[in-house]
Amino acid sequence: MKETRVAYRYAKSLIDLAAENGVLDRVNADMAGIESVFKQNHQLVAVMKNPIVQGDKKHAILEALFGGKVDNFTMSLLSLLTKKHREAVVFEISSEFQRQYREKMGIKIVEVTTTQPITEDQRANFKAIMASKASKVELIEKIDEKILGGFVLKMDDQQIDESVIAKLNKIKNKFTEQVINY
């Protein structure tokens, strides 16, 4: 809970500063990259959360990983976090920043699940389907062979399930109802 509040505040401040200085999109790209690095490297997360590792060593690690590769605002945030002994929440801040960025920009996340990778035409069709629900859409593609075919679209609390397994289950339920009612 405490980490969430801290992450929210730092992310909000960074969004405000980046927007004021016209570097919001660059900083968002940086935060996405930072989140990706932390997701892929659990040892990095462990080091950042380890109270035994000194702050200057953590700063050196962050500098080596991101120095010269991210915007000055982003690097300043990372430096500030190590000075304030908040490096343990870098991952949470990057995730929260992206959530707030999407909210600010009116971008909705749409999860599309299929049995195989989708084509550009299909991607455009899925975006068109969701265009009535949101002006800007970010697709997250997932592969799940359990749906047997078709697709499942999820946005917020809405779901469009056009999968083969859902249709088979619907037929099964109708058949079961008819047998019971017979």
Q: Identify the CATH homologous superfamily of the largest domain.
A: N-terminal domain of the delta subunit of the F1F0-ATP synthase
Reported CATH architecture of the largest domain: Orthogonal Bundle
Strand content: 5-15%
User: What is the N-to-C order of secondary-structure elements (H for helix, E for strand)?
Assistant: HHHHHHEHEEEH
Question: How many distinct folded domains?
Answer: 2
CATH class of the largest domain: Mainly Alpha
Query: What separation lies between the terminal Cα atoms?
Result: 54 Å
Helicity, as a percent range: 55-70%
User: If you consult CATH, what is the topology of the largest domain?
Assistant: Peroxidase, domain 1
Output the structural class: alpha+beta
What is the molecular shape? Answer: elongated
Subcellular location: Cell inner membrane
Keywords: ATP synthesis, Cell inner membrane, Cell membrane, CF(1), Hydrogen ion transport, Ion transport, Membrane, Transport
InterPro entries: ATP_synth_OSCP/delta_N_sf (IPR026015), ATPase_OSCP/dsu (IPR000711)
Organism: Cytophaga hutchinsonii (strain ATCC 33406 / DSM 1761 / CIP 103989 / NBRC 15051 / NCIMB 9469 / D465)
The gist of it:
GO terms for molecular function: proton-transporting ATP synthase activity, rotational mechanism. This protein has 182 residues and is α+β, with helices and mostly antiparallel strands.
